[in-house]
Write a structure and sequence with these properties.
CATH topology: TIM Barrel
Largest sheet: 6 strands, parallel
Strand content: 5-15%
Number of helices: 13
Structural class: alpha/beta
Length: 337
């Protein structure tokens, strides 16, 4: 069953020197693991710390994001016999027919645009087709649900960093609304993962195209603010978007234990029963999370999760939708065939 994964941080690990190449490494994702897991397309996120005081006064998130994009394309060039970058659904299907993996370029942290629509457009020209509006810092676009912004008053800091207290009062800025409209116009998918609850509803109030929550789970099963409430899931269904299952231990369970394939399936089954199988996908967060307490250690073991879903009554048709069709639908509606 061909898989699309909407989120991984593998390029970040390469930038840190944790591995030399995506071809073969000890990370959670490399080409061998993707092929063993029967992947169709992997989204590679350019994860950038918008605010990073320890990097010094010369640190520039826009520059660092461009360095990451360069590394992404160098990896694509070196491994073009097995994986190639794509900007359309048609290219994904053409790569599939040639036996080639596809890679979609995304950004995790809209703050890299520094509030400038011109920079957003240039990232689109570089091949970026999906972007989270925030990570865990407030920026020119909006406010996240977990806020690590330095220098906040102590009383405010306690609230915005509590994993059980969502951001329900501050959402998108005026500039943020402009960004959503421009992303719609360009054909860049709006990714609401990390965005506060208020920001999520602000996005849906203005977006004319389906959005994604690329790596989030169900808050009904785990109360972490990075997860989606039932009402948010209902609103995502009305928008026609997709939520991608995140494998991060803290988002799957509030218990201090190993997260099993059954735990992941619990969230997926819950979301299916709540809003339907047509709005569900994968967003592993591989290489952005630890696998020390995760049974699903890397991309090669994805068939184990599909087997568990099948045991729970997900039909082959259901799995086709979850594995790739739902995401391809959203991508077609955003950036076309």
């Amino acid at each position: 069953m061909r898989i699309i994964d909407m989120h991984c941080d593998t390029i970040s690990e390469l930038m840190k020197g944790k591995a030399d190449s995506i071809r073969k490494n000890d990370l959670m994702i490399d080409l061998d693991k993707l092929e063993a897991g029967d992947y169709l397309c992997q989204c590679f996120a350019m994860f950038v710390h918008y605010l990073r005081p320890e990097m010094g006064p010369d640190y520039n998130p826009f520059v660092y994001c461009n360095r990451m994009i360069d590394r992404f394309y160098l990896e694509m060039e070196k491994n073009s016999d097995r994986i190639r970058p794509v900007t359309t659904v048609r290219q994904i299907l053409e790569n599939r027919d040639r036996g080639i993996l596809s890679a979609l370029l995304t950004i995790e942290e809209g703050g890299v645009c520094l509030g400038h629509l011109e920079l957003l457009r240039n990232f689109y020209r570089l091949g970026v087709r999906m972007m989270t509006l925030t990570w865990n810092y407030r920026n020119e676009i909006g406010f996240p649900n977990s806020d690590l912004t330095p220098g906040l008053p102590e009383e405010e800091m306690r609230a915005v960093r509590d994993p059980l207290i969502p951001e329900t009062e501050r959402g998108l800025t005026e500039k943020g609304f402009e960004f959503v409209r421009e992303m719609n116009r360009l054909g860049m998918v709006v990714d609401c993962s990390h965005l506060g609850d208020k920001g999520f509803y602000d996005v849906l109030s203005v977006s004319k195209k389906p959005v994604v929550c690329s790596h989030s789970c169900a808050r009904a099963l785990c109360p972490h603010v990075r997860n989606m409430t039932d009402d948010m899931l209902d609103a995502l269904k009305k928008n026609g978007g997709v939520v991608g299952m995140n494998y991060c231990t803290a988002f799957v369970t509030s218990e201090d234990r190993m997260v099993t394939v059954r735990d992941l399936a619990d969230h997926m089954e819950y979301i299916k029963n709540r809003i339907g199988v047509e709005y569900l996908g994968f967003g592993s967060d591989f290489d952005g999370i630890s696998n020390r307490t995760l049974e699903l250690k890397d991309a090669s073991r994805m068939p184990e999760l599909l087997e568990e879903l099948s045991r729970r009554g997900f039909s082959d048709r259901d799995l086709e939708k979850v594995c790739f069709e739902n995401v391809l639908r959203v991508w077609e509606e955003n950036f076309g065939e």
